[in-house]
Amino acid sequence: MLTTCPYCEAVSDHQTPVGEGFDTPQNGDASMCGGCCEVSVFDFTVAANIRKPTDDEQDVIAAHPAVRAAALLLALRDMQ
Ligand SMILES: [Zn+2]
């Protein structure tokens, strides 16, 4: 699936699942950009297939352990 990050406009043609559940993203799943590390939400009603989260979605995303772990790993990658 082709996505365009709503923060940095990086285009991606693959997704790597980091949580439980489906191997393919579903509407409402969170997506972390490998370019800028911002978290978006899959929404197949928009052309980019992902959008910025609402405030309520952002609260849930920020509290999820997998998102926090992924953010740490990406930050460490950028330090190398
Ligand atoms: Zn991005």
N-end to C-end Cα span? 29 Å
Give a list of the ligands: zinc ion
Mean pLDDT: 87
Strand content: 15-25%
Topology:
Elements: E1 3-4, E2 11-12, E3 30-32, E4 39-42, E5 50-51, H1 55-63, H2 65-79
Antiparallel strand pairs: 1-2, 3-4, 4-5
Zinc ion binds at residues 5, 7-8, 10, 33, 35-36, 38.
What labels would you give this structure?
alpha+beta; 3-stranded antiparallel sheet; two-stranded antiparallel ribbon; binds zinc ion
Any overview of this molecule?
This protein is an alpha+beta fold and 80 residues long. The protein has helices at residues 55-63, 65-79; strands at 3-4, 11-12, 30-32, 39-42, 50-51. A three-stranded antiparallel beta sheet has the order 3-4-5, with helices on one face. It has a two-stranded antiparallel sheet with strand order 1-2. A hairpin with a 6-residue loop joins β3 (30-32) and β4. The longest helix is centred in the C-terminal third of the chain and has 15 residues, at 65-79. The protein is globular. The mean pLDDT is 87. Zinc ion binds next to loops.
Précis, in short:
This protein is α+β, with helices and mostly antiparallel strands and 80 residues long. It has helices at 55-63, 65-79, and strands at 3-4, 11-12, 30-32, 39-42, 50-51.
